[in-house]
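Second attempt. The first submission of HHIP-like protein 1 had a stray character pasted in from the spreadsheet, which I only caught after the job came back as garbage. Lesson logged: always re-copy from the clean sequence file. Corrected sequence (477 aa) follows.
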Amino acid sequence: MHSLASLLVTAALVCSLASASNPVSIPIIHGQLNVHTKRLAQLPRFEGDSAKIICIVPHQNHLYVCTLNAIYKVNFRGSVSLYLDIQKAIASQTPRSLNYDNRAHGGVRSIAFHPDFPRNGLLYVSAMESRPSNPKQFTYISDTHKPIAADSVLLEFKHNFGRGVPDHSSYRNVFRVGMRVFDHPIKQIAFREGLLYIAHGDGSFQSATAGGGQRNDALGKILRINPLRSGNSPYTVPQSNPFMGASSMKDEVYALGFRNPHQLCFGNDGTLYVADAGRDNIEEIDLVVPGGNYGWAEREGTFVHLSKGGLVSGVQSLPSDDAKHGYIYPAAQVGHEGRHGAGFVGQAVAGGCPIENNSPMSGNYYYCDFPKSGKLYYSTISELKSARTTGSPSQLTQARTRQATIFFDHDNNPGTPPKKFDSLGDLVRYDTSEDIGDRADIRLGRGPAGQLYWSSKANGRVYIFTSSMPGGPGGPV
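This time the job returned cleanly.
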């Protein structure tokens, strides 16, 4: 019996057209959800360019927005203030510097506030920092014998409640990860029940096949630690970690087999959602469990990943006995579309969060084709949880991917009709006065009341989906 994935990829291989190849032939569903959005805030320009917004993180009654060099505090009326200049903090406390030589993967990546922040004032930042001249004096989860000039780092700062901002002097280096190339480094971080989850890319160039994911290192992994200092240890590893004490994998590893896990987000019930950007063929939405192996670089989506080839030609159907490897396959997947055999086609997934707040957008997990098109996708939470992601290839199933229609309140006037867009990318190009080319660079983030925000690196703006607020406009069609 052939698996559905096998039949689909075979059909794509046989029937692909020069301009419309796609390894996933199940179509995306359109026209079932209308979402409304409006502007919230404009972040300051940096070095003559629009702010490169990397993350949107809620804490108490504010949003904290990461850019290449700093973290800004944004209130729900759109007021923006500088919260922490990471670049200045590092330079003031160390001989090193924040590194954003690669502006797509460098600089500040994420921020997370300790659950006991009201008492201890601690917050954590993931970033790329220049490599120390004396690396043996630092704690590395893993390193490489041919490192680049920057490391992935986790930093700790302490908030000064009197001044209302963190003290630069509280800078503490929690851990470092050595990188072979300046691509797919440390990503988003988030707390759950006192433990910090860290997404880390596989350390490979776009479309490279030599990246990590399966090796005994921090690359291509979701890590989990308690970041608090304990005696002489800069952090501790919980005894409940799935590889604790195993010689085959680092104690800090929570799950493995990822390529470029941009975002991680927890559902109300603790389900960990991770959006993993693929190589030339498949974008994944994974529901992550402790000890799970999500297949990269041996698998890309529900396909065998080949060391050569591009779009469609770089994957093949799963063997019938693939269950023996124990891989976990995506709960939802989106195929790239373009010329057969193409390499980088400018399509990649940025994840958001499940919305579970009884708003018109509630009941779905949202994700986005972030680089160029900005298409806003969603899958129902129920379908994601019921997808069969292990076992025989013939039995694998995925949640359907749907695409929302966007309505933009362009003038902040409820008396005028909103403008309709098929994608957030089209909206950004409309809402930006300067020429931004074909890049939209969308990021998604959830607010403290479960509402959904989004941003664009192209214009440095933060927007809110008003449909993600209880009682807001829009909803299922």
